Amino acid sequence: MFLLGVSGSPIPNSNTDRALRAALDNSGMESKLIKLSHSSIAPCMTCLGCVGTNECVIGDAGNTLAERTHEAAGMIVAGFTPYSTLDARSKTFLERLYPLRHKRGLMQGKPGGAIMTCSIPDDREHLPPACQYGIDAVQFSMLEEDMEFMGGVKVAGNVPCVACGYGDECDLSGISMIHGPEATVASVGINRFEEQPQAMEQVRDLGRLIAETARQTKA
Q1: Which of 61, 74, 129, 159 has its CB 3.0 to 4.6 Å from that of 119, i.e. a possible disulfide?
Q2: Does the reported pTM lie above 0.85?
Q3: What percent of the chain has pLDDT over 70?
Q4: What residues are paired with 7 via a beta bridge?
Q5: pLDDT per position as a tens digit, 54-109
Q6: How many CA atoms lie within 13 A of 39 on its CB side?
Q7: Dihedral angle computed from the Cα positions of residues 95, 99, 103 and 107, in that order, rounded to the nearest 10 degrees
Q8: DSSP string, the chain
């Protein structure tokens, strides 16, 4: 048995990646991590060509990823929230699991969870709850496959404007949008997963919970 971790972040060793590794490393189960930016995956074509075979007709890396997901005893999807929703890579990956459901329900009963990295804090009432939207997208996808969703963890991330070089002068800077007109790159700083003890504890707990549930399911 192994636990599968899937990261939608294209940034090398990102907060999303490190949070996912912490969950997997503390699960007590063999684990494998897939970084979606290393694969080329086309979106689902809704052609229903997979109904008879449980295999997508596209035949790209999405087929391999779906097979690996089927082999896993449980899964954690770690994404981020551009434009206040789940990132495109993670969403495409989840949609390409559609062939696994027909007639046989190949993911049915397996435990899963979500880790979501977001730059918008929960207390910004004038902005959308991006992290929750991202977690909801993963949860609802897993529920449609009749998986057992074990929970989602929110990790504080960074708006790209802190690194683009124009974050203090751009009229559409996410820094001022999120933190107010007086905020600057320097005043906002950089969020690092390792400096978030609550999130660290939660991802570790999530990894252990999914692994424990997977063992019970297999028993």
Answers
A1: 159
A2: yes
A3: 100
A4: 35, 78
A5: 999 999 999 999 999 999 999 999 999 999 999 999 999 999 999 999 999 999 99
A6: 22
A7: -70
A8: --EEEEE---STT-HHHHHHHHHHHTSSS-EEEEEGGGS--PPP----TTTTTSS-SS-SHHHHHHHHHHH-SEEEEEEE-GGGS--HHHHHHHHTTGGGTTTT-TTTT-EEEEEEEESS-TT-TTS--HHHHHHHHHHHHHHHTT-EEEEEEEEE---GGGTSS-TTT-TT-HHHHHH-TT--HHHH----GGG-HHHHHHHHHHHHHHHHHHHHHH-
Q: What is the pLDDT of residue 154?
A: 98
| CA 206 – CA 137 distance, rounded (Å) | 18
At residue 32, what is the residue type? K
**Given this model, what pLDDT does residue 195 score?**
98
Write down the mean pLDDT value for the chain.
Answer: 97
> How far is the C-alpha of 110 from the C-alpha of 207, rounded, in Å?
14
The answer to whether the beta carbons of residues 156 and 141 sit under 8 Å apart is no
The dihedral sign for the CA sequence 58, 61, 63, 66? negative
